[in-house]
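To close the chapter, one final illustration. This time we ask the reader to focus less on the individual chains and more on the assembly as a whole: which components sit near each other, and how the overall shape emerges from the parts.
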Amino acid sequence: MATIVQVARLAGVSTSTVSHVLNDTRNVEPSTRAKVMAAIEETGYRQDAVARAMRRARTDSIGLVISDAGEPAFAEMVHGVEHAAAARGLTLILANSAEDPVREERAVNTLLSRRVDGLIIARCAESSATVSSRLEPEAPRPVVLLDRVFDNSPHDQVGADNRDSMRRLVEHLQAAGHRRFLLVAGDQRVPTLVERFRGFRDAIPDADLPQQVVVDAVDIAEVRQAVATALQQQRASCVIAASTPLAVAALECLRDAGLATPDQIAFAAFDGFSHSDLFRPTITTVRQPAFEMGAAAVSLLIDRLAAPDASPRTLRLNQTLELRESTENYEPRAS
Amino acid sequence: MATIVQVARLAGVSTSTVSHVLNDTRNVEPSTRAKVMAAIEETGYRQDAVARAMRRARTDSIGLVISDAGEPAFAEMVHGVEHAAAARGLTLILANSAEDPVREERAVNTLLSRRVDGLIIARCAESSATVSSRLEPEAPRPVVLLDRVFDNSPHDQVGADNRDSMRRLVEHLQAAGHRRFLLVAGDQRVPTLVERFRGFRDAIPDADLPQQVVVDAVDIAEVRQAVATALQQQRASCVIAASTPLAVAALECLRDAGLATPDQIAFAAFDGFSHSDLFRPTITTVRQPAFEMGAAAVSLLIDRLAAPDASPRTLRLNQTLELRESTENYEPRAS
DNA sequence: ACCGGCCACGAAAACGATTGATTGGAGAGC
DNA sequence: GCTCTCCAATCAATCGTTTTCGTGGCCGGT
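The assembled structure is written out below.
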């Protein structure tokens, strides 16, 4: 590849002039500019982003650490981040922590060493301390937390209105006559799942609480075990799964127990399944605006770069409650 | 951030010694090494990947240009690439062309300007010429083509055994009694879809060909239109969709036409839907090993970096035919 | 005692751009 | 005609590493 020196030589000017033409960073005589452009054309010169980053403060790149690249909701967030970043001329460096704090920390280190202008992180369940301590004392690289939102975070954050949405979902189900729920709440070290659990509690009168079954197992096999046991006791009229993997486990249990949805038991899930409308039963879903969350994270990051000292913001995007047949036609029985 | 100079000063050695300690690139006295390590610890020094890349020939990063980040199959490939790259200490720069040749070219340029060690590209439908010409004359950055595989490509490639799989699928359906198919073949500028179409032709006796309906419309609305029309003519006993978006369109048409699967019409799809087993009808699917394809692309890239002059390889991973109820219980009617 | 070789380390030149300081010349004002 | 200003363009320092050459000291062999 040609370098700026060769371009300058060919155009008969200095490298600084070429640089200024390239970056439009000070006036240059039209005739010189033309010569430079011609030389660029002829040599097939392309700016070297590495050398450029070396000299300047910024790299025009951002890092994204995702906690589970295999999960469709996160894939959508990646998509949203990529889209918003590209639209602003930022390149995206992607890393996956696979819910492993060690890999997460390694990823953050790698990204920092590559001098990304900022970081977007969907934290894994157990990472809080490590990553924070790694982030704070360093050169102040802005960080935006994605999806997994923490109280009193020093960082900007974007999440969903999990608590409200869960409350609305449960209230809807209650209005349809449901009183006894099986909530598959999932790993309570994950803020998202904690919020959804809280929303559930918000909607349940204290007196009814004892009737509810909550599964907060971490390992998916344990979840399946617990759900199966709970179903045998035949107490719930409605199952709520707080995430897609949990919904998968729950649906498998329902299938294995021979319980049909919605005729024998109602079912609702957060995040849900793609193309849910094409298959039966169609599942009542609280859908996360995953793409938009990713895009919003980039916006927050840009804002932060422009105003490093503004106080941190937490953005909550609305989820949509999509009612489908898995929660229809419930006939409350006298209990 | 501390630099290598500060570390050297603190340790009372030269920067070259620090560098050699860091990279284990020549013998250093255990005592000096210890001093250096201590200084690194104390300053919290972290190697600067940008400066490092500046000096060395490699950047330890690879670029991935994906043609449709929104599609789950491609998201899985991204996941596979990320996984394999991280395992080898490579960082991944991600770009999405969204099936737009202009964006694709821009992405390739950006990645080259960042001096990625190599590129993995899932080409978009119309890009052939542009990107090729951009890639060839440059500094020889290895390129691996992913999913969309081209004949006589000068690059390494990894795809799926589309033609074989389609032939096997059709043969299976024929064995079950189907003779008249509606193939939703999709955009024939996409090599993957061309291969699937060829596999279909392979399996159909010439005499039967006139009975088959093939929809190769590009725009998804046109596809839907064409499928709807074809269904009204009531000729096919089985619909085959050559990709997930096409399957979505086809299933919507079936639903709108009030045709139940599999009772009134059989259905099979390539790539398919996640968690297909949980919902009805369960769909007979030819599943792409998307994750593995991504990982394989990284392997090819690594091999290529090690042996730049080896002749280009094309890898074809096997797809699996997953038989489900959408193609069961067909009762051939006398026609 | 001298020479050669080895070993641990250091000095300094890249890598390819950006950018603050500086120069040279043209034009304006008196 | 002289100075002052302004503008375009150049010079040279700089970013933080890696790596090529050297250098000096020590040891062993003759």
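The mean pLDDT of chain B is 92. Residues 290-306 of chain B form the longest helix (17 residues). With these observations in hand, you are ready for the problems at the end of the chapter.
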